[in-house]
Design a protein that fits this description.
Radius of gyration: 21 Å
Strand order of the largest sheet: 4-5-3-6
Low-confidence stretches: none
Number of helices: 9
Order of helices and strands: HHHEEEHHHHHEEHE
Structural class: alpha+beta
Number of strands: 6
Mean pLDDT: 90
Shape: globular
Largest sheet: 4 strands, antiparallel
């Protein structure tokens, strides 16, 4: 049996002008992967008017995730690549990683912004911490499946009541990891409903609860991130704050009234540098669209 194999080599130069801080937990690698993939797709099709269907966007997101797995050796989920592909201005995105379907959730209060604060403490996700926690969660799922219900194939299928039933069988660290994932899924669903209802107070409370869980149960925060959150939530006009990304450094995200942003930045800069010696940096953000072809030279 003979096959004809066609291999296409593409050679081109491009300039990468990145404003997203590298290693800050803001999906810088995923955004670069997705933007590059769309650029290559447009070159192959020789069109700047290329319209990316949802099917094509999903294909790009999955290919970029595969690149992380196979070339960067990071067994990451799909979230970063997905939002870099499917993001829509003025909305949050509720992603179901099992079905790879999503809902767009309104996030467009003109009086509020997201202040991203970079701790300027670097982290490397490929250091094994992500893979270690994933393995701990998989150990919990295996016990849940064997001792609680065979229908539990993922921690998303379990409840706190379920995990409590096998607490005596689990190493404490696995219990804590599972507890975080289960409660974080609940918080995510509750946050989506709160956004739909414009309940920004609840959104903020859920952000802080999420951070505490990441800090105490999943244990991926650090002293610097905890300090940034603690400083922020004491400021009037701040609804909530939490770390973002893989942890062990990087950034926090704070939901704050627009007229309190400068006060918050000043307080964070002063107190954080005084206690850590690091100078924080800031980005004022709003939910924006994902990667797209702007023009063709």
């Amino acid at each position: 049996m003979y096959y004809i194999i066609s291999i296409i080599f593409i050679f081109f130069n491009f300039i990468n002008n990145v404003k997203v801080p590298l290693g800050g937990g803001l999906s810088s690698s995923a955004s670069l992967e997705v933007a590059t993939a769309m650029l290559i797709e447009s070159i192959i099709n020789n069109s700047h008017e290329l319209q990316f269907t949802d099917e094509k966007k999903l294909q790009i997101a999955l290919l970029c995730q595969k690149a992380e797995h196979n070339y960067a050796s990071v067994p990451c989920g799909l979230m970063d690549q997905y939002i870099s592909t499917f993001g829509v201005t003025g909305t949050a995105l509720l992603l179901d990683c099992r079905s790879t379907k999503h809902q767009l959730i309104p996030f467009n209060n003109p009086n509020l912004s997201l202040l991203v604060t970079n701790s300027n403490v670097k982290h490397e996700l490929s250091g094994g911490e992500y893979a270690q926690r994933r393995q701990q969660c998989e150990q919990s799922v295996e016990l849940l499946c064997n001792h609680v219900s065979s229908s539990i194939n993922s921690l998303r299928d379990a409840t706190i009541s379920d995990i409590d039933k096998i607490k005596h069988l689990l190493p404490e660290i696995c219990y804590k990891r599972a507890k975080h994932v289960i409660t974080e899924n609940e918080r995510t669903q509750n946050a989506a409903e709160a956004l739909k209802n414009n309940d920004w107070k609840l959104v903020g409370e859920l952000m802080v609860a999420s951070h505490r869980s990441l800090q105490n149960d999943y244990e991926v925060s650090c002293i610097e991130l905890d300090l940034l959150v603690d400083i922020a939530i004491e400021i009037d006009g701040v609804y909530g704050s939490r770390m973002t990304g893989g942890g062990f450094g990087g950034c926090t995200v704070t939901l704050v009234e627009n007229n309190k942003i400068e006060q918050l930045k000043e307080k964070l800069s002063l107190d954080y540098k005084l206690k850590t010696g690091f100078e924080p940096s800031f980005i004022i953000a709003q939910p924006s669209s994902g990667a797209k072809i702007l023009f063709n030279l």
